């Protein structure tokens, strides 16, 4: 196990060609995300070469190691390189009788997550130590051949989920580009839509996904725009019809607990397969007049533009948290294509395809999570799962 370096602010570089620094904030559930990553001069790599990561490394965030979406660990991929390990992130590499792919499966298991939840300390900033990670008791290891077979089976599902993630990101960017490229006429949000805040909910009304309605909240906002399905809360308390966002609605994050502007003012679209949802007072719903509803996607695309970002960010205020006034969104001007433009239908198709890939990934992840403890415990063997996994992957490829 290796721990990262305490890089200083004077070490940071602004050149995109320099080496990314992997901090705890960059560690998501199962993968790395590089939003707002700091960089280190490539010309000084020799000074810190011991902290250089390689493909296949497992990294674990040691501060806030577990969130609602799951354990904050990731596998370093070729596309992540080059990158350097920063303090408060642990790097794990298998040795001896343990295969690296099998180690990845162990770290992603429910047993390891439960262990971390049980040993983490600290109330304001929960954390774990290197010693606590090292104290995790490994189950009885099968042979290296069996470990590699298990890793390959689970890895095939993980690879498809990762492929879907890249496709979803590409589809989103293509939909935005097509709409912005076709935009011709300028409109004002307040002339075509109403903007309103959502439900100021009570903690006592929060419940599970079985008995409650899904509720869009700050945790539902992916960094820099898009709805994060793992961030839903579920609610069974009182609410009014105005607190409902219909499927397909455009929601904008109105509050952020940092001043990095990673979620505030960025747009979310409620997936059609999720159906109607509640939305909290931290979110802003844009409800179009029926005759102007076709402008929903053009406004969504415009909210990614530098012009929209500059306008909205100039209105953000607050002392302890950043807040976007509803009026700032109402006052925003945006450009739209003609109503008959093929770009609208094309963008809609791309967004719906992205949603379909998300639901597919949810099913693949659920299958992986079902198989994982069974394979690790030896209750089922790889040969029993190969055909099932292959059939699922073939079905997804043909969809």
CATH topology of the largest domain: Adenine-n6-DNA-methyltransferase TaqI, Chain A, domain 2
The whole-number mean of residue pLDDT values reads 93
Q: From the alpha carbons, calculate the radius of gyration and give it in angstroms.
A: 23 Å
- SSE class: alpha+beta
Percent of residues in beta strands?
Answer: 15-25%
Q: How many separate structural domains?
A: 3
Provide a count of the helices. Answer: 10
User: Any idea what the CATH architecture of the largest domain is?
Assistant: Alpha-Beta Complex
Q: What's the story with the biggest beta sheet?
A: 5 strands, mixed
Description:
This protein has 399 residues and is an alpha+beta fold. It has three domains: 2-141, DNA methylase specificity domains (Adenine-n6-DNA-methyltransferase TaqI, Chain A, domain 2, Alpha-Beta Complex); 142-181 and 339-399, Helix Hairpins (Orthogonal Bundle); 185-336, Adenine-n6-DNA-methyltransferase TaqI, Chain A, domain 2 (Alpha-Beta Complex). The chain is 35% helix and 18% strand. The chain contains ten helices and 22 strands. It has helices at 100-107, 110-119, 130-134, 144-182, 189-192, 296-302, 306-313, 326-330, 342-377, 382-398, and strands at 2-3, 19-22, 39-40, 58-61, 66-67, 70-71, 73-75, 83-85, 89-92, 185-188, 193-197, 206-207, 213-216, 233-235, 244-245, 250-253, 255-256, 267-269, 277-279, 283-288, 322-323, 333-336. The strands form seven sheets. It has a five-stranded mixed beta sheet, with no helix packed on it. Helix 4 packs antiparallel against helix 9, helix 4 (144-182) runs parallel beside helix 10 and helix 9 (342-377) runs antiparallel to helix 10. The longest helix has 39 residues, at 144-182. The radius of gyration is 23 Å and the shape is globular. The mean pLDDT is 93.
């Amino acid at each position: 196990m290796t721990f990262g370096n305490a890089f200083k602010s004077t070490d940071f570089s602004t050149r995109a060609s320099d080496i990314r620094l992997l901090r705890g904030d960059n560690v998501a559930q199962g993968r790395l995300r590089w939003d707002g990553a700091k960089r280190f001069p490539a010309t000084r790599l020799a000074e810190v070469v011991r902290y250089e990561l390689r493909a296949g490394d497992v990294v674990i965030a040691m501060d806030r190691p577990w969130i609602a979406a799951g354990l904050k660990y990731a596998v370093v991929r070729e596309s992540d390189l080059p990158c350097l390990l920063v303090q408060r992130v642990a790097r794990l590499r298998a040795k001896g009788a343990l295969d690296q792919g099998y180690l990845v499966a162990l770290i992603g298991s429910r047993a390891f997550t439960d262990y971390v939840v049980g040993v983490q300390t600290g109330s304001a900033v929960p954390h774990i130590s290197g010693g606590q990670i090292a104290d995790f008791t490994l189950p009885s290891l099968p042979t290296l051949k069996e470990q590699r077979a298990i890793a390959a089976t689970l890895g095939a599902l993980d690879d498809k989920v990762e492929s879907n993630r890249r496709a979803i990101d590409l589809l989103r960017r293509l939909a935005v580009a097509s709409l912005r490229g076709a935009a011709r006429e300028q409109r004002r949000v307040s002339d075509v839509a109403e903007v309103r805040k959502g439900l100021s909910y009570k903690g006592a009304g929060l419940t599970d996904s079985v008995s409650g309605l899904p509720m869009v909240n700050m945790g539902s906002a992916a960094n820099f725009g898009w709805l994060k399905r793992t961030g839903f809360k579920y609610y069974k308390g009182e609410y009014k019809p105005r607190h409902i966002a219909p499927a397909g609605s455009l929601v904008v994050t109105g509050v952020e607990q940092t001043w990095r502007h990673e979620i505030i003012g960025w747009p979310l679209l409620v997936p059609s397969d999720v159906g109607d949802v509640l939305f909290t007072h931290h979110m802003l719903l844009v409800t179009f007049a029926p005759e102007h509803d076709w402008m929903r996607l053009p406004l969504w695309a415009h909210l990614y533009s530098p012009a929209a970002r500059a306008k909205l960010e100039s209105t953000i205020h607050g002392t302890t948290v950043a807040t976007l006034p509803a009026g700032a969104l109402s006052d925003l001007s945006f450009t739209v294509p003609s109503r008959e433009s093929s770009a609208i239908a094309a963008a809609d198709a791309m967004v719906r395809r992205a949603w379909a890939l998300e639901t597919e990934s949810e099913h693949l992840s659920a299958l992986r999570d079902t198989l994982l403890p069974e394979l690790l415990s030896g209750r089922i063997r790889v040969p029993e799962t190969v055909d099932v996994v292959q059939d699922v992957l073939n079905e997804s490829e043909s969809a």
